[in-house]
Amino acid sequence: MLVVAHTGRREAVRSAQLVIERLSEAGIGVRVLAGEAEDIGCSGVEVMPPSAEAAADAEVVMVLGGDGTLLRAADLAKPAGTPLLGVNLGHVGFLAEAEREDLTATVEGVVTRRYDVEERMTIDVTVRRNGSIAGTTWALNEATVEKAERERMLEVVAEIDGRPLSNWGCDGVVCATPTGSTAYAFSAGGPIVWPEVEAMLVVPISAHALFARPMVVSPRSVVAIEVLPGTPRAVLWCDGRRTLDLPPGARVEVRRGAEPVRLARLHLTPFTDRLVTKFGLPVTGWRGRFRQAASDAASEGVERAVPQAGADGALGGAGAAAPVRDQTPAASGEAGPGQER
């Protein structure tokens, strides 16, 4: 296992030490990154450089921190196809599978291999200048073309599948995956897209235009954003981590990524429940079809066994997951671009 931690947080360091101790007791080899080994201070671990080699042949990359730490770990895990399992020690933590209080159970689930793996769509990004490729990169959440000078608007033209769509004077344009729909794109007014929906989002930021609504396009589409001549220079940000300067005339092409990012899942929690929990959405008054069936049975004086919905929404018997409770979860905040969520 490769253990990646936000060593700037004491809690993450303590959690990493506990995880390494438990994995070692179970006879599992542990790797840590060279820049984190000294802070974690555990013996008997393999210290690896922060490259794709660190995740190669590892069964799981365990990430202790917020979504920013998980996005950093994704750089290492994606080339190797190694699943990521995040323990949220940050704020919202949409990409994380477990919370800090579930750490012991999470490690046990990894040790006993009681987890599933799901694939998340990525996007590949190509930057062209004067017809030549100036750089390539990728993103799990989003690629954003942003203005580099605060006092002036950015002038761009958007293209979908080789056809011009619209000019925008704006602060930027977000091109996001469904996974990224709850991150920067959400903050910019974009829609939330369920992870199993394969699509790309195009969300203008503070555009001064009549047509500047968020758009959802086919995963087979190619989206291009061109920085118009005479406009201030721009900058490309991918997942708030990788950046590239964009002079006037630069062209950014975004398409579905050739390789997905794999996430390890211990719980088959419906995405709706995740939204309710992470955003603290009020669900007071919800009855649901199963509760309605129980109410109808009671009013008729008939004693019936009311089935519960399993994690996948199907009817289940004993041991099936209960539906969302009629209560309001604790609220949580949303981070801005480039911050841990």
From TrEMBL:
Instruction: Give, as one word, the top-level EC class.
Output: transferase
Which keywords does UniProt give here?
Answer: ATP-binding, Cytoplasm, Kinase, NAD, NADP, Nucleotide-binding, Transferase
Q: Which Pfam families match?
A: NAD_kinase, NAD_kinase_C
Q: Where is this region: Disordered?
A: 298-341
Which residues are involved in binding NAD(+)? D67, G68, R72, N141, E142, R152, D171, T182, A183, Y184, A185, F186, S187
Enumerate the InterPro entries for this protein. ATP-NAD_kinase_N, ATP-NAD_kinase_PpnK-typ_C, NAD/diacylglycerol_kinase_sf, NADK
Principal subcellular localisation of the protein: cytoplasm
Can you name this protein?
Answer: NAD kinase
Catalytic activity from the UniProt record: NAD(+) + ATP = ADP + NADP(+) + H(+)
GO MF annotation terms = kinase activity
Its family remark reads:
Belongs to the NAD kinase family.
The active site of this protein is located at D67 (proton acceptor)
Q: What does this protein do?
A: Involved in the regulation of the intracellular balance of NAD and NADP, and is a key enzyme in the biosynthesis of NADP. Catalyzes specifically the phosphorylation on 2'-hydroxyl of the adenosine moiety of NAD to yield NADP.
Q: What is its EC number?
A: 2.7.1.23
Question: What domain of life is recorded for the organism?
Answer: Bacteria
Q: What organism does this protein naturally occur in? A: Actinomadura fulvescens
**Localization terms from the record:** Cytoplasm
Tell me which cofactor or cofactors this protein depends on.
Answer: a divalent metal cation
